[in-house]
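Q: Give me the 3D complex with flavin-adenine dinucleotide.
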Amino acid sequence: MPNVNTALVIGGGIAGPVAAIALRKAGIAASVYEAYPRPSEGIGGALALEPNGLAALGVIGAAEEVRRVATPITRSVLAFGGKRLSEIPSLEGLPPRQIIERGDLHRILNERARAAGVRFECGKRLLGVHESSHGITARFEDGTTATAEILIGADGVRSTVRMLIDPAAPSASFTGLLGFGATVDARVDLEPGTMTFAFGRRAYYLYWPTSDGRTAWGANLPASKPLTLREARAMPAESWLDTLRRTYADDDPGAELARRTTPENLQVVGALHIMPPVPRWHRGRMVLVGDAVHAPSNSTGQGASLAIESAVELARCVRDLPDAESAFETYEALRRSRVERIAKRGAKINHSKAPGPVARMFMPLALPLMFKLMDVEKTMGAEQRYLIDWDARLSAAIRASAA
Ligand SMILES: Cc1cc2nc3c(=O)[nH]c(=O)nc-3n(C[C@H](O)[C@H](O)[C@H](O)COP(=O)(O)OP(=O)(O)OC[C@H]3O[C@@H](n4cnc5c(N)ncnc54)[C@H](O)[C@@H]3O)c2cc1C
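A: Here is the predicted complex, encoded as structure tokens.
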């Protein structure tokens, strides 16, 4: 029997419901409190789940359902100025990356959480906490409170819990890129299952065929100022579309993808962020998980996958360690070096997405050569082959060996 019996999970995005389901599986009663007034099932945009993220979803029994609605990506290619340059090497023997609509992933996780007996409350924006020797009480904007033995901050890149743990904690850094996406009625000359990472003349973008015969694409626009989602969405979609059409006007198929995008199907994502290392992952009865503590930037394709892994590992630690403090210390020891290594890789990719004129000149030669010489197992093996052995019992010895 775990020594912790109850948990408040702040944030009903990805890490929150996964943590709550995994905690229930470990015999711990968990409730999720989400700031938005409604379930987020209709929210747009797509995200990639890497084999490691899918393996972690398998622990909570959600992988098969995800695969049923997602689009598998079996091949990735790199294009420069409209020309396909090379295939991006992939690891042998792993299941494919899956692209899933964010709304679908939220729906699956929320349904699983409810089926597992997790209480899920919307319209509960956390403002503050009160901690005592018996438990922790969360105070919400609507004037209500909730109490449990521990509180998990799964409240995303602008985490309130991170600041409650450590008011001096760093904030997420702007990558210098704004994100957009759309699925359009355009057929691009691509085999099913192929994702193209394209360096256009002025900006980077990526695209892939969807299972219904259309094309999905995502754009990363260089920008000098970060815009919050609210600020970015306050600008008329027509004006963003204008910018996108000008930016990709000389790109093939970027120009066509931008031309076919309409104000109605344009997804404005806002500033893309990366989390610098967070000095304090936990304090007292509070702990962080997901983007709140390790947003590795969308360039890694690992944000959601790492959030899912961390949520499952945290539940395992709470299950096996004798108290909250040792559980949180063991969790940090298990996770910190892995997520920081992946964030470093993301920072490098972000840098290459907006190359200067000299770098641009060399890229068509250098990138294919780099992929040819790349030891894919060494570069990506540890990242994508990560498996969680749910049944293996953890002990504090992990802390010592990981330190
Ligand atoms: C454009 C873009 C593309 C991306 N593509 C990928 C990809 O291809 N693959 C990938 O793995 N990752 C991708 N990511 C990253 C991925 O979306 C995140 O890593 C993932 O959503 C993290 O999950 P999370 O649950 O930690 O945070 P979130 O999904 O942000 O969820 C946090 C939740 O907490 C709630 N919340 C916030 N504050 C409070 C509060 N005070 N009280 C209560 N609730 C609160 C929020 O409303 C939200 O629902 C992408 C991100 C962006 C922006």
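A quick observation: The first strand starts at residue 6 and ends at 10.
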